[in-house]
Amino acid sequence: LPADSMKVSFEEARKRMLNVNGWGIGLRRSGDLAAWLSFAASASITLILGYFGRAPAAQGSPGSTDGLPQLSVRAIGSLAALAAVLTGFANLSVAKSQDYYKRADEVRALIIQARAQVIDAKSADEAQAVIDNLNLNSKR
């Protein structure tokens, strides 16, 4: 086999490996950001409730039956929904990033194995079969 042909195949597999790993990095960062935003939304809920919270009634006096301001209730509802969605996204992103990292590791192992097999190949057909296998499995 021509060396240029083999080099191109290995470089393409390497680029696929780095691309898959890049997706894993992006998902991990997105998950981390979503987790921090979820924390901020939850903390905001706590601060709003703390600010508008009512002190317990003194003994013998009637308790306060005033509710939270309507704007605060809407803010709390929106922040709670946002926190729930962000928490779900963060967990899914981190889990999927691990899948991408695992796939990048698998492609890396394929590249290393294919290089060794090409060196040990007894014929051009055998080397081509190794390259074909690398191309096929690195694209899955």
β-strand amount: under 5%
Number of discrete helical segments: 3
Low-pLDDT stretches are none
Intertermini distance = 24 Å
Largest sheet at a glance?
Answer: none
Rounded average pLDDT: 89
Radius of gyration: 28 Å
Number of strands: 0
Please estimate the helix content.
over 70%
Helix and strand pattern: HHH
Structural class per helix/strand content?
mainly alpha
Shape: rod-shaped
Provide a brief overview of the structure:
The chain has 140 residues and is an all-alpha fold.
Name some characteristics of this structure.
rod-shaped; mainly alpha; 83% helix; 0% strand; 3 helices; 140 residues
Describe the protein in words:
The chain has 140 residues and is mainly α. The chain has helices spanning 3-52, 70-120, 124-138. The protein is rod-shaped and about 95 Å long. The two termini are 24 Å apart.
Question: What does the secondary structure layout of this molecule look like, with pairings?
Answer:
Elements: H1 3-52, H2 70-120, H3 124-138
Helix pairs in contact: 1-2, 1-3, 2-3
